[in-house]
Write a structure and sequence with these properties.
It is built from four helices and eleven strands, in the order αααββββββββββαβ.
Length: 344
């Protein structure tokens, strides 16, 4: 019984202690006093300490730190703005690319992919050179006349032709040719009487030991056509054909007149006219648009005969000239000409 009373008294004391402790914690005055007592600014006499005033150096340092902080903040903001602008540009580019791709995908068939049409750049217009369709060619070279009884080479062979290109591969033209041949009539000689000034004695028969000189001259007027195997190359080979009217003359160069046995000597002359056909092959070499060169090989043969006929009073030398003209008309004529061309 005594132990139970003691326990009750102990519990009552503990309850009173808890109440006093809670009251002490909730008292405002006690709390304020406690904060004053515990502050570091109170000295042993209980007086407040004065705050330390900052020096001029401290103020400058604080201002510098503040400016540095503002500058750093400004730079960060500027860098961030630049980064955002670049991101916006990249985003716009990506958006355009995606829009173009989506538009292209919308145009693609569900079965087959549509080919991408690439527009080629327009070619730069170039100034086209003026097409020169006309030309004049002056040429000369070797000519051989080969017949059954004669084989003659021309002393002079010159040709002038004018052409017009009616098609990139076809040209037509006209030409003029002049040929001169000097030869010696070694198969014939004639007698001379006293009236001949070559000799000082009367009634003596004199023979030319080497024969008389014969001169053959011919002019030709022709028309021709050419076919070119290439058009734009520097070297343009061609083949062609033509027709020409030839007018020639044969005469002895020593023509001092005299009479012997009723026949007149020293004035013999024969003319011969004919129409001839020709085949040609060669090439044109174009140096510049205006100038070029031409090499041509030509084969010609007479199609008609037109040697002047003689009479009973013709001398033996005149007969000889007539036979020579007839023989040359039946000959094969081959010439190789090289010339220069002027295009316009």
């Amino acid at each position: 019984m005594k132990r139970g009373k003691q326990a009750s008294a102990l519990l009552a004391l503990m309850a009173i202690g808890f109440n006093l402790s809670g009251y002490a914690q909730e008292d405002p005055l006690l709390n304020e006093t406690q904060s004053v007592v515990n502050t570091d600014q109170i000295d042993i006499e209980g007086l407040y300490k004065e705050k330390k005033q900052p020096s001029q150096a401290d103020k400058i340092q604080a201002l510098r730190r503040k400016l540095e902080a503002q500058h750093e903040q400004m730079m960060r903001k500027k860098i961030e703005d630049m980064r955002l602008e670049e991101e916006r540009k990249l985003a716009r580019k990506l958006q355009k690319a995606l829009n173009g791709q989506m538009q292209a995908m919308d145009q693609v068939s569900t079965t087959y992919a549509a080919p991408v049409k690439v527009q080629a750049p327009a070619p730069v217009p170039q100034k086209k050179e003026e097409d020169k369709r006309n030309n004049i060619t002056i040429s000369g070279g070797f000519m051989n006349i080969a017949s059954e009884n004669n084989d003659l080479d021309a002393n002079f062979n010159m040709k002038i032709s004018a052409e017009n290109r009616v098609h990139p591969r076809i040209a037509v033209g006209v030409s003029f040719r002049y040929v001169s041949i000097d030869m010696k009539d070694e198969n014939n000689a004639y007698l001379s009487n006293a009236s001949n000034s070559y000799y000082a004695y009367n009634n003596y028969s004199n023979y030319y030991p080497d024969g008389r000189e014969i001169s053959f001259k011919q002019m030709s007027f022709g028309a021709h056509g050419k076919f070119f195997f290439s058009v734009d190359s520097k070297i343009r080979p061609f083949a062609g054909a033509g027709i020409a009217y030839n007018r020639g003359s044969f005469k002895y160069t020593e023509n001092e007149r005299f009479t012997y046995n009723g026949q007149t000597y020293g004035d013999e002359k024969i003319s011969a006219n004919n129409v001839a056909g020709s085949l040609t092959a060669g090439a044109v070499v174009q140096f510049t648009p205006m100038f070029g060169a031409e090499l041509a090989v030509n084969f010609e043969r007479a199609l008609t005969s037109g040697v002047a006929e003689g009479d009973n009073n013709s001398s033996s030398d005149e007969v000889r000239l007539r036979n020579l003209a007839t023989d040359i008309e039946e000959a094969n004529v081959v010439s190789v000409n090289v010339g220069l061309s002027l295009n316009f």
